[in-house]
Amino acid sequence: MSIGLNTERRELASSIRRFVSRHVSMTAVRRVMETPEGFDREIWRQMTEELALPAIAVPEIYGGAGYGYADLAVVMEELGRGLVPSPLFGTVALALPALLASEDQGALEEYAPLLASGSIIGTLAWLEDDAAWGGDTRTAALRGQHGWRLDGHKSYVLEGQAADLILVSAKAPNGLSLFAVAADAPGVVRNLLPGFDQTRRLGRIELHDAPARLIGEVGTGDAILSKAIDHAAVLLAAEMVGTADACLDMSVEYAKLRKQFGRPIGAFQAVKHKCAEVLVGLEGARAAAYYGAWAADDNSDELPVAACIAKATAAEACFRAAGENVQIHGGVGATWEHDAHLYLKRAKTSYILLGDPSYYRQRLADRIGLS
Q: CA 322 to CA 241: how far, in whole Å?
């Protein structure tokens, strides 16, 4: 397994970048982010049917392409570069890794082909109102005559409004477990939550005696979630690398064009330093993200450590790149008409999503025995 960009991955990156340039311009992003669903169904159809993006990391035995997370990281980087609003992250970075981590063959045979084809949108719901990424779960699961039933709620669910398949963590009598819930099942109520980043939708899901299917074994929820979120953290890191790279490109381009005192502002040392420091952080984040993707594909024991490093490093690099982009653009960078604020909002929400850098540093310290 190779780390980073080989010839095939460079071609994949180029094809995704061309697709985004043609079909998901920033004008299109602004239009879509104002819609109730938050993404364009026709663009999603093209991403699933023509590009087969959800199938990339799905094993071939379940109807996928079987390439893996290193290739998927390339896709996420390019989509992050364009701030593409789509349910891909929830489907392949949250729902799919959770299913694979469960090793539930029946569930994989039923759901993985549907996720791979884009026939259904998936997500993972484990947070509650306290928004503690590693916090306690109060949603209850009880087994009755007609199967499992869930009572409780989940908050900050990525694509909670659009998902067809919701994987929910809940407390069963024998411990935390994972359950599959159909979005249209009786007892399921979904509400859109207001978000800082208009290009990414969050929802709140209420479960009132909702029918559910157990995924994996009872009591294995913690292990499944831990492994799934490590995979999600790596893919989010790759997405943030793309966002940071776009911010750096915008900064450099503007620094070449904008003149003060008869010279481009890029000629001034203060602006040069800003761009150089962003580049250093970006390259470190890129290396960490691709190493994490390799570890995810290789089923390496290093994934729990690599995922923490990738998420913390990329979050800080992305947020810095987006912030410096606004600073270099000056007053125009803070206006609604300019795209800089959209990148800053994505950078900030991605910084927090799945846990902020301090959370991942503590998680890293726990995993390597320093705490």
A: 11
CA distance 181 to 171: 15
Beta strands in the chain (DSSP E): 122-125, 140-144, 147-158, 165-172, 175-182, 188-193, 202-215, 259-260, 263-264
DSSP string, 111-174: HHHHHHHTSS-EEEE---TT--TT-----EEEEETTEEEEEEEEEEEETTTT-SEEEEEEEETT
User: What is the residue whose two structure tokens read 């909002």?
Assistant: 345
pTM (predicted TM-score): 0.96
Instruction: Calculate mean pLDDT across residues 242-259.
Output: 96
The CA distances from residue 132 to 20, 43, 51, 135, 155, in Å, are 34, 33, 36, 5, 11
The percent of residues above 90 in pLDDT, for the chain, comes to 88
CB under 8 Å to 204, separation ≥6 — which residues? 153, 154, 155, 156, 157, 160, 190, 191, 192, 193
For the segment 90-99, what is each residue's pLDDT rounded down to a tens digit?
A: 999 999 999 9
Across-strand partners of 157?
Answer: 203
